[in-house]
Amino acid sequence: MSAFLLGIGFRADMGTCARKLVLLKLIDACDDDGSRIFPAISTIARAAQCSTRQVQRELKAFLDIGLIRLVREGGKGPRSTNEYALDLDVLQLLGKGGWELVAGDRPAQEAVIAANGEANKGDTVSPFDDAEKGDTGSTERVTPETSKGDKLSHPTPPDPSLDPSVERERERERDDQKTVERWLKRVHPNWPSFVADSGRTALAAAMALTAAERETAADRMADYLAAEKASGGRCAFGVYLSEKRWERLGPKPEAPEKPAYAPAFGPVWAAIRTRNLITGPHAPASPLKAWEESAIANGRLDRETLEKGNRMRAGWPMVNALHQAAETRGLGIHGYGAEEERLGKLCEFVPVGSDVWKAWKLEHELRGWPWLPDPGTMRGVYFPAGGPAGLKAFEQAVRGTNDAQQAAE
What we know:
Structural class: mainly alpha
Strand content: 5-15%
CATH topology of the largest domain: Arc Repressor Mutant, subunit A
CATH architecture of the largest domain: Orthogonal Bundle
Oligomer: single chain
Helix content: 40-55%
Distance between the termini: 79 Å
């Protein structure tokens, strides 16, 4: 809204009340330079308290006298409106001489401009100079109603203008209804009797709720439908909302906590893996197969290498499963406790290819442990702090925990 242009609009004698209110609504919607006017016809009609046809007639009259110009024609959709711009020179003339001057003959306009020196300074014609305007006698200013309007004073609207705060409240109510309609469109189709339900009843019930109540109703809907199915009863969605039936369910049970997740090659993952290694092997190695014995006899395979591979696969099945999940799917470990988290704090980051990395790989070979899978693009993985020399401290922490658990049992 431009306060400067609004002052000119209030001074302008537009001839009729509806015409002036239409002008004020256009000014209310424009920028200071008179541009960017694109309210809907219905919006202008509500503000001017007249019909949409009346607004269309006034806009055509404004276009005819050059007060507004069409900047961009709207489309055919409900939210696509014409865009107009005010001619500020014509608006200034309206503020000085009124509608009759601007809509009348051009010589009269030029005479006013010439008498004043320029069009944008001073008042040259008062809207009360004409004998047909204003009060002419000393009687009390009450004008009889005529079929052609009021000729002795400016026409007075039959109803007082709406207070701006009331109009803003109505706009908010319309916005609230649109919000509720969008909420119903999202939630109502999930109700079993959606097809048979009355949309108007559901909307009225939803409008009576607060935003928080609507969200609670949507959140508890599945719980209510499950309870309703068990009891064999069923109600319409509007009844569910109006009676706030979700409140009959009692407090919502707390959702179970998601199990903790330890990503592959991280500190907790490394602690669980190393704990399983130092407490193993957990199963005896499987005997060599007949074809392996034959290959050894022929000198094509080495017995020690085969037996070592069997011990790695059979002795630490959990570690091998961790390796496979990390290598093929990038998965870690779902679910661990405080003890695993404590052991994870005893681990440190070891860059791939570093001296500590090579020392850990050698330690695995010496102990017959399965080595890590390829970490891919990761810069490093976690091992117990202090390198292989720190294994003793880590093992003491693990065995101390196991002893404490056995004592408690």
